[in-house]
Design goal:
Layout lengths: L1 H13 L3 H41 L2 E5 L10 E5 L5 H11 L3 E6 L6 H9 L3 E3 L5 H19 L3 E4 L17 H11 L30 E9 L8 E6 L6 H7 L3 H18 L7 H14 L7 H20 L1 H21 L3 H5 L5 H16 L1 H25 L3 H30 L4 H40 L1 H25 L2
Parallel strand pairs: 1-7, 2-5, 2-6, 3-4, 3-5
Antiparallel strand pairs: 6-7
Helix pairs in contact: 2-3, 2-15, 6-8, 7-8, 9-10, 9-11, 10-11, 10-17, 11-17, 13-16, 14-15, 14-16, 15-16, 16-17
Length: 502
């Protein structure tokens, strides 16, 4: 009996008690949390990689002006214009190569699926309504922003609030200024020392144990050559960081006035970073002249600067010399009419077919188009269904110009991977191919699709050359008139740019 009792005692003592189970749960909870965080980070990395690849494919050129102004690490408050809705988010994410936590309208976080995707991308909700519940929600969002700043992260927002105009900046809301000033007040000493781009942004003085981090306020402009066209170009211009010290000093006297003053300053800075055309007459004139700037051999980051100088000079002419401005408008309309009748691009009209480079390039294009036709045909056949589905979605859902590019990009991210998955299933389940062979077929299919992108441009260039030859034989006078108007406009634009140059 004694041994049985002892045995029973040993058996009971070997069972885990409630305290033991609680301790075990406490030990496993951090592991589960880290595992969940790791899965979320992995999902974000995968989505980000796909979106960056899609942006690089969709836009022919993505240029960044003054990238050195954007800190490589440390807290940043990024303020940008908003010409193309969600496309702006993708472009900034790719251009600046840092994880950006965007502030978005709270209504966009419904339904659950969209809220999950926004949270996965690091977005934070902002509710513009003045209700008590809304203020509480925004306070929670601003607390999360301060926590992100303390962690050295980037918070980005579009203070216009809506996407409407791509050649001007709408009136800004005051949220960006309020967030910047609130963050700066936590450690006023930070604003007195200038920040050098690329250097870490520490909090407080050397040796201080302060935990607050003041973000660098960086205005950034986004300029699309054509926000609705596939294969277009986009330029991201990073502005000089804003010195908040004068505004903090003024905030002691007029806290509400300084918010509006900083908002107005940000508005002017954003306008200076894009091609700002608030006047309809000026916008119409620049829309006719801007494509001609792309004919310059010195393209790139300076192209936008040249267009800004021309726009500033034309605005000056519109106000001070309206007769001269009217002459430029008249020649611009005549050139647009002649080019439209010929159905040729600006670059095609600038070609000189009598020169040797033209003949060499025509021969090269002919060889590329002939030899590359089989691969391009196979690529077109394999990608016809997902491309058609994406175009249908973009034209029926993204009719707004601000949404059109994003509709194309997102539909491409859905339908093209789905087509590749169907290809793998068909090859493995129906035809019995091993998995590695099916994956190799997917890689080959993607390569053929990427080959189509330059091939279509080569075919179009060769077609325009053939059409130009035919038009010079059938309608020589119209071709000569269009070229004469083009040369005149180029000269007028060059004069305006020279006069505007300081």
């Amino acid at each position: 009996m004694r041994s049985a009792s002892a045995s029973g005692t040993r058996h009971e003592s070997s069972r885990p008690t409630g305290r033991d189970l609680g301790a075990r749960d406490a030990r496993t909870a951090p592991v589960a949390g880290r595992l969940l965080d790791g899965l979320v980070a992995l999902g974000f990395a995968g989505v980000t990689l796909m979106m960056r690849a899609a942006v690089r494919v969709y836009f022919r050129h993505l240029r960044v002006r003054h990238r050195e102004r954007f800190p490589r690490r440390g807290p940043v408050l990024l303020v940008a214009n908003h010409p193309a809705m969600w496309t702006d988010v993708l472009v900034l994410d790719v251009a600046l190569a840092r994880k950006l936590h965007f502030l978005a309208l709270g209504q966009l976080f419904k339904p659950f699926v969209r809220a999950f995707l926004l949270e996965l991308h690091g977005a934070l909700p902002v509710i513009p309504s003045p209700g008590e519940h809304d203020r509480t929600g925004n306070e929670d969002t601003f607390r999360r922003c301060r926590a992100l700043f303390d962690g050295g992260h980037v918070v980005a927002l579009f203070p216009e609030g809506v996407s409407e105009a791509d050649r001007t900046v709408l009136q800004l809301r005051t949220g960006a200024a309020r967030l910047a000033l609130a963050a700066a007040r936590r450690d006023p000493a930070q604003t007195s020392s200038p920040h050098r781009a690329g250097e870490p942004h520490s909090s407080g003085f050397a040796g201080s144990d302060a935990t607050a981090h003041v973000p660098v306020l960086v205005p950034t402009g986004i300029h699309y050559a054509d926000r609705t066209s596939f294969g277009s170009e986009v330029t991201v211009s990073v502005g000089e960081p804003v010195d908040l010290a004068p505004y903090l000093a003024q905030a002691e006297v007029d806290p509400e006035g300084v918010v509006h003053a900083l908002t107005g300053h940000l508005h002017q800075r954003l306008r200076s970073l894009i091609l700002d055309l608030p006047q309809p007459a000026l916008a119409a004139a620049i829309s006719q002249l801007e494509p001609l700037a792309r004919l310059s051999p010195r393209r790139g980051a300076r192209e936008l600067e040249s267009a800004q100088r021309v726009a500033a000079r034309l605005e000056q002419l519109r106000v001070q010399e309206p007769e001269r401005f009217a002459v430029i408008r008249r020649h611009g309309r005549a050139y647009a009419k002649a080019r439209g009748a010929l159905h040729l691009s600006d670059r095609a009209l600038s070609w000189d077919r009598r020169g040797r480079p033209w003949r060499q390039r025509t021969g090269t294009l002919t060889v590329l188009c002939v030899l590359g036709a089989p691969a391009a045909a196979v690529g077109a056949l394999l990608h016809a269904a997902p491309w058609a589905a994406g175009e249908w979605i973009a034209h029926h859902v993204g009719r707004d110009p601000a949404r059109f590019a994003f509709g194309r990009i997102i539909s491409g991210l859905v339908f093209f991977p789905l087509a590749y998955l169907v290809l793998v299933i068909v090859l493995t389940r129906i035809y019995g191919f091993p998995l590695w062979s099916a994956l190799a077929a997917v890689v080959l299919t993607v390569s053929l699709g990427l080959w189509m992108l330059p091939y279509v441009q080569w075919v179009h260039a060769l077609w325009e050359r053939a059409r130009l030859l035919g038009l010079e034989w059938r309608q020589p006078r119209l071709v000569r008139r269009a070229r004469a108007e083009q040369r005149l406009l180029l000269r007028l634009v060059a004069e305006a740019a020279a006069e505007a140059r300081p």
